[in-house]
Amino acid sequence: MTSKIHPTAFIHETAVVDEGAQISAGVKIWHFCHVMPGAKIGKNSSLGQGCYVASSVVIGEDCKIQNGVSLYDGVVLEDQVFIGPHAVFTNVKFPRAHRKGKFETTLIKKGCTIGAGAVIICGTTCGEWSMVAASACVTRDVPPGVTVMGVPAVVKKSRNHHLEKLNI
């Protein structure tokens, strides 16, 4: 398995990018990150200090993943996603030391923002341009264009994301 690392990508000397990872143009991978073989990171995305990216993870273009985030197998981030520091993504609903079966998919749609320390339970989808407040726990799908907060996360604010002009 051969790595595909674009020449314009920046990888800090303490980061580990395993053979077989795909790193696109303009990507920045900072201190003490680990990117596993098979992981795909889209152009102009950034991994903050201490991030982990598992083998089946797909990160879209223009994403920003802050410090201390672990993206486990089954997580897919579409374009322009923001993940705040120390957000948590699970990939099994009933974890055991010796488990059998596949990992559940968690989909974070285009433009979604996940706040610091939020927990995203596997098998959920966070809709386009939705916002998950800091420390919220997402246990079910988040509709597009809404803000959720709390434990468990509930809709606190709705907006028509098709009519709003976003300055991105």
Identify the overall geometry.
globular
What structural category arises from helix and sheet content? Answer: mainly beta
Mean pLDDT over the residues: 93
**Roughly what fraction of the amino acids lie in strands?**
25-35%
Order of helices and strands: EEEEEEEEEEEEEEEEEEEEEEE
Rg computed from alpha carbons, rounded to a whole number of angstroms: 16 Å
How far apart, in Å, are the first and last alpha carbons? 36 Å
Q: Main β-sheet: number of strands, strand sense, barrel status?
A: 9 strands, mixed
Number of beta strands: 23
Q: How helical, in percent, are the residues?
A: under 10%
Total DSSP helices = 0
Key structural traits:
168 residues, mainly beta, 9-stranded mixed β-sheet, 7-stranded parallel β-sheet, globular
